[in-house]
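[job 4471] stage=fold_predict status=RUNNING
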Amino acid sequence: MVRFRSELQRRSIPRRAFIAGAGSVFLLSSCSRQQVKNSGTDTPIDDIRFMQPGFADGFTMPSTLVAGKPQRAPFFLYGSNGLPIVNDLPTELVGQLIPPTGSPTTVNLRQHNEGIPTPYFLLEFEIAEANKGTCQLKVAINGSEQIVEFRVVGKDETNLIQVGENMRLVDTPTFTNTADFDPLCTRYEPCPFHQKNLSEAVSNNRPTVLMVSTPGFCQTSICGPVLELLIELPTDPDWDVIHAEVYTQPRKIAEGKDIQGLIAPVVRTYGMDFEPSLIVADSKNKVKTRLDYAFDKREIREALESIV
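[job 4471] inference complete, writing structure tokens
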């Protein structure tokens, strides 16, 4: 059963989680498996920054990171007040990725901030298929060594479509056939990406760009205006660009209706239990790029360039 998790992005850690004036601070977050070791003795609590995963880490909710395939994992920096930090951030973080077995590798997490209100740091990695389990990311931030744990699972543990796989056939509503979606698009004005049914797009020999998001119900700064960014970027007229909503009738959620029954078929077919997601496939229907949870205009642009 799909259990949708847009609430993943409502992360915060209360100020009381920190011990002011202590020579060494150890933090175990209720949102993720995390340790913070502060080597200083007089670091003001307001200067402490800690890293949080912006994805399903496998502890608070089932992991969506798969061994044996290229993966991306966005991280955010938070302050002691539990709010994401948006200003005066480094351009990248350097750390070590420690797999379940094997040697640590040095990783660079580039900051992404183009067109979005909250910057994130992106970890791109791939570990061997037989090496699934709990990984650790170790990063030094403002004199504090931080270790964040997350799980990497086997392909058989998730139905989420992966890079290199074929696009999946499923119908999506269009302007001419709403398929009882109400509204068809939760954007303040319906976006132009509802001209073609996804099943039709997958059946032809054209590249496909699929955005799954619910812009009218994005109430956090972390999910970002991803649909607007896609609208702003130029796309080839020979591509099929499709926006699919997450819920068939989102207004019923406020009425206490069964959310599971309102989830759109495309979400189930593509193995998602989160939003937003961008999937880009070439003319042979092979997935070239998949962006999940948080992504900026730069990543969207690079995803589109993968099919040029």
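[job 4471] summary: The two ends are 37 Å apart (CA to CA).
[job 4471] exit 0
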